[in-house]
Amino acid sequence: MAYRVLGRAGPTQPRRARRLLFAFTLSLSCTYLCYSFLCCCDDLGRSRLLGAPRCLRGPSAGGQKVLQKSRPCDPPGPTPSEPSAPSAPAAAAPAPRLSGSNHSGSPKLGTKRLPQALIVGVKKGGTRAVLEFIRVHPDVRALGTEPHFFDRNYGRGLDWYRSLMPRTLESQITLEKTPSYFVTQEAPRRIFNMSRDTKLIVVVRNPVTRAISDYTQTLSKKPDIPTFEGLSFRNRSLGLVDVSWNAIRIGMYVLHLESWLRYFPLAQIHFVSGERLITDPAGEMGRVQDFLGIKRFITDKHFYFNKTKGFPCLKKTQSSLLPRCLGKSKGRTHVQIDPEVIDQLREFYRPYNIKFYETVGQDFRWE
Fold first, then answer.
1. Rounded to two decimals, what is the model's pTM?
2. Where does this protein have compositionally biased stretches of type Low complexity (predicted)?
3. How far apart are CA 313 and CA 303, in angstroms?
4. Which residues are catalytic?
5. Cross-strand pairs, 314
6. What span, in angstroms and rounded, lies between the C-alpha atoms of 110 and 89?
7. What is the four-CA torsion angle of 349, 239, 250, 135, rounded to 10 degrees?
8. Is residue 270 part of a domain?
9. Using CA atoms, how far apart are residues 344 and 104, in angstroms rounded to an integer?
10. How many domains does the chain have?
11. What value does the CA radius of gyration of the chain take, rounded to a whole number of Å?
12. Which residues are annotated as a binding site for 3'-phosphoadenylyl sulfate?
């Protein structure tokens, strides 16, 4: 019987030769596989250290089979001088955080933005009431304290200012109140440089009543100050009013307004009547909401008149189980002033008031 010759094996050793050849082939295959596995693992390890994508990964994870057709590693990224093409995000990548032109924040908390609206004045006119009333609106988020950025803290920069703001959603307005801005000469230009589209709210009040309220507040802190009459006049018998006293000068509204009109059109400034804010808070706040471009959410149902304080307070809301009035510093009983002093101040303010009415197109009826 004839036998096939395998390699150098003789005709009497066919089976042994086959076994040796098979063992040799199997050994080579195992060596190759082990070497390939080690190289691939080494590449994977280096890719983890260097932040490169893994090789030989399947198209999806989960319960699919691990053995898939392998694909080569992604080519190395471009050098810094080369533009990189945008790549599609991985399916399992986390959702990106919201970002805005001013600052970034999380989707739930919103974004810290520079204010789109400011209550810029005036002191003792009713600015705190407007702030507390407008904060009831779901589309408005307001800073509770006065940051005094555009008059005292401007050197800290816009990033510092923005960091003070509450987080807002895209649909909400960020607002802050500092009534001293209205009489600060640099404030209009600084606010304009922040954003020429800023909406400005000015709460005004009869300048004589405002001055008395201002004096009453100062007297509660400094009981040894001179009398209201002594501070108001340089020479009362001659009717010379001391316009250097801040309590008097603030009420010369038209002079301060001229500085604002150099930077902002009148349509961008809304004037709230401090008197009507007491007698008709819903009406005044309705006009504020219209000016801000938000729906009229705050209505008569939100207010009740507090006879003790002498002005309206907020009724209990969904977020507050108790009615909310302004603090103890609001609604103080004014110091009694000689009626003749009041008449003299009314005459002093009359020309300024008339010019103010003509400029803003409203008659506040302070005479």
1. 0.69
2. 84-96
3. 6
4. 124
5. 303, 324
6. 23
7. -60
8. yes
9. 55
10. 1
11. 38
12. 124-128, 205, 213, 330-334
